Amino acid sequence: MIGSQLDETITKPIAVSTEGIHKSYRSGATVTPVLEGVDLVIRREQCVFLAGPSGSGKTTLLSILGCILSPDQGRVQILDQDISTLDEQARTAIRRNRIGFVFQRFHLIRGLTSLENVCVPLTLQGMPHHKAASRAADLLDAVGLSHRAHTHSHNLSSGECQRVALARALSADPDLVLADEPTASLDATNGQEVMKLLRRLTTEEGRTAIIVTHDQRIFPFADKVFHLENGRIAETAGSTSTALLESER
Ligand code: ADP
Ligand code: MG
Prior knowledge:
By secondary structure, the protein is of the alpha/beta class.
């Protein structure tokens, strides 16, 4: 079973690839090199983890893949587009329409309810309010939070905030979902629940997921684990995820 799952994703088209990505941060005369030649290939419908010690550049790399940051050097191909050659406007369009980003600290808007938070990207895209509200309600239902739709985000638990953030990231129906340490502030049970939701995005909905984590408890959910250290990537592990999902059915 594990083998057949791996074979299936290995033959899928490439979703994301990078070649020779370099990125440094500059502050005055100080230059901090972070990424020093990152090469990656991630195929469609894979659920890939990006692990590595704190400060190794995981958030930096995810932000580059999410078209939030630009690399200093190197090529980034996302969903058949070479984004290194696109202008800011075209990159923004890819980020809005094809990528769902789940931020480490949720980034929910405090004064808004769960439903309103999930509506924000949809209304930004110009969807009429009643349609956005109806889609947001469906998305909250999918993450098991219908009963919290009208609760303000500051009254939600961390696990609930993470699920609202996930519903919001899915609002534009993205092909690619990027999540930065999605289980870091959750207990084991909530962490497993959020990972099951993320995992189903790839196995049941045909999306691609890239998840930054150093939470060893969730490694069994990955098809592949890439390890980032000293500015470079090494692939470290294969999948046990299908077996894990199968055993839960
Ligand atoms: P990780 O997510 O693996 O913890 P980050 O990508 O957040 O790593 O950061 C990698 C390195 O870059 C760290 O040394 C961090 O202090 C530094 N860094 C991150 N963001 C900035 C920034 N905006 N300006 C300067 N240095 C930064
Ligand atoms: Mg980080």
